[in-house]
Amino acid sequence: MAVQEAGQGAGAGKDAHGGGCTCGDCPHGARAGHRKALAAFLHQRDGFAAGKGLPAAVAHSASASRQWVSDELTQSAAEVADRSRAEGRAWLARLWKSTLRVVWGATVLLLMVQALTAIRAGWTAARTAGLLAALVTAAALSAASWYHRERGGVLAPVIGEDNRLSTSRAVATAWVLFTAFAVLTLAGQLAAASGHRERDALIAGLDLARGAGMVTVLAVVCVVAVLVRRVVGLRVQGQRLQKVRAHRPRAADLLTDDSGRGNFADIQYVVISAVALVFGLVRLARRPEQLPDLPWGLAVVVLVSAATYLAGKYAEGGRPVVLSVVRAREAGDLDGPIRTGDDIEIRGVGFVPPGAGSADRLSRMVVRIGAVNVHVPLVPVTGGFSNPSDTVLTVPVPAEVEPGRVEVQVVTAAGLETNRMAVDITE
């Protein structure tokens, strides 16, 4: 019996961390747990939207059933959010191995390209120096990846405070790595050079007159990366920009805004920088004895792209604003003043911050009516929610609100407070 129980216990442990693991103790379990919780939430939301699953005790009252549904969805959304954050942490923890494979795969690709191009031209000291520079760069990135293995490996420096990939940091990092690789290539050739003229020529390849374009671009993209972090931080602290933390970074963050929509400023910055980097790599391959001399025309194009990206960061965002508050009226209802127990419709802009469209973020929205904080109820429809939305919120006026003139204010999921709008509540 003891042997059988031990075997069953071992088998249960194996099954718990096998294909159906949902405990979150392992990466696969975190992913499976999130998918299971999300599927359950979507089924529950669509069921409530179709009028299914309501208990008889609240089915007779529209306001009671709406509040009960909202509370149930809020609890389920919190479970989904917890699972999503656990999956994000597990994903970052195992990402560092993938970054290592990419780094060393790029090194092997460089070796293959050099071997193919050397069939007719022959192997040169510049090719050896380039390969050694790639090995040194890959080793340094591998060490950094292991050190930041809990934060995504090589990607750790380009992940912003909002847990998204930063476009400005990614572009600046690419230029820094390219410059370091070019200098290491020159250093390798200089170490292998035997004649004075050859060494003097290699040292002359580092002259500013030859690499002025690349040095200028490098300086500008690094300054832009620092400025963007400062600008975003100041705008968030000054309540002029709403930022919510993502559950995990995604590659699409480099080309989209926080809500996942394509962003022109980000796209043009990445595309133009990538084109300039490709041109620089070709110049380095053709003339490895000097820094890649980016033409000033191409350098100016990159600078204009960086200025456009920075201007886009200054222009994005804005504070949420309440424009009006009216009494919500259903079909067949009589017109009248706002009374305690009525629903009010708050119209404005910016109530849902970019990236805060998930149910757990929507459930955090609050409306202050006088001294009473009213949580905005979640009203499900098939495929989403009709309340709250970015421009309209509907909340009931609780009995705790005293009749008279009161002020209405919205607090978004990002913590920003709107302006106050005065309304009259009658008995």
Largest sheet: 5 strands, mixed
Q: Percent of residues in beta strands?
A: 5-15%
Determine the fraction of residues in helical runs and give it as a percent range. 55-70%
What is the straight-line distance between the termini? 73 Å
- Give the uncertain stretches in residue-range form: 1-20
Order of helices and strands: HHHHHHHHHHEEEHEEEEEEE
Q: Say how many strands there are.
A: 10
Name the overall outline: elongated
Radius of gyration: 29 Å
What structural class do you assign from the helix and strand content? alpha+beta
Mean pLDDT across all amino acids: 85
Describe the overall structure.
This protein has 427 residues and is α+β, with helices and mostly antiparallel strands. Helix content is 56%, strand content 12%. The chain contains eleven helices and ten strands. A five-stranded mixed beta sheet has the order 2-10-9-4-5, with no helix packed on it. A three-stranded antiparallel beta sheet has the order 1-3-8, with no helix packed on it. A hairpin with a 2-residue loop joins strand 6 and strand 7 (384-387). It is elongated, with a radius of gyration of 29 Å. The model is unreliable at 1-20 (pLDDT under 50).
Could you list some keywords that capture this structure?
single chain; 427 residues; alpha+beta; 5-stranded mixed β-sheet; 3-stranded antiparallel β-sheet; 11 helices; 10 strands; 56% helix; 12% strand; disordered N terminus
Task: Itemize the secondary structure elements and their pairings.
Blueprint lengths: L1 H15 L10 H23 L6 H4 L2 H60 L3 H23 L19 H26 L3 H9 L3 H30 L26 H23 L9 H20 L5 E7 L10 E2 L3 E7 L9 H4 L3 E4 L2 E4 L3 E3 L2 E4 L4 E5 L7 E8 L9 E6 L1
Parallel strand pairs: 2-10
Antiparallel strand pairs: 1-3, 3-8, 4-5, 4-9, 6-7, 9-10
Helix pairs in contact: 2-4, 4-5, 5-6, 6-7, 6-8, 6-9, 8-10, 9-10
